[in-house]
Amino acid sequence: MKLIAITGGIGSGKSVVSRLLQVMGYKVYDCDSRAKQLMATDSHVVQQLKHAFGDDIYLADGTLDRQRLAARAFTDDSALATLNGIVHPATALDLQQWAIRQDHDHARLAFVETALLRTAALDRVVDQVWHVTAPTDVRIDRVMKRSGLTAQQVQERIAAQQGEEAVASGEHVIINDNDHALMPQVLQLLN
To answer: Which domains does the chain possess?
Structure first.
C-alpha cells in the first residue's frame, strides 16, 4: 500500500482535497481530528496532559477544556513543545496502526491529512506528499469565515506554521486558489 500525505497550511484546503478522495472511495486518516480524539479518550495521553498542564484542563465530566489547554500550551515555545511531545507520538502510533489495517484490507492507496507533516515527522513515514497551496489572503478569508477568528489571529497561526509552508523537492502541488479546479488536479495525481 502507498501512503500519501495531504499537507498545507491552515486554510489551504487540505480537508477539501481529503473529502474529494473520500467521496472517490479512498480512506483518509485526519491527524487533527484523531489527535483531538486521542486527547479526549486515550488514558495515557490524558494523564500526560494533566501532568504537564494541570488536572483542570479536563472538566468534571472528563471533557478536555480546549481553551484552557490552549491558553497554557500556546504561551511559550517550551509549553508548545511539551504538548507536541505528548500528542505527536501518540498520533503517529495511531496512524501506524490505522495504516496496517488499510494494508490488511488490501488498499492500494491511503491518505493522511496533516498540517504538521515535518513537525510531527510524518514526512518520514509517507511514500508521497501532496502539498495544497492557496494565496495568504484567500486562506485568511476562509479561516475567518469558518472559525470566527480575526485576521490577526489567522496570520499568527500561519506564522506559527512557517516551517511547514515550504514545498519540498519531490512534493506534488495542488493549487486551491478558487480559480483552479481541484478535481482535475487530484485525478492527474491519482493516475
So the answer is: 2-40+90-190 (3.40.50.300)
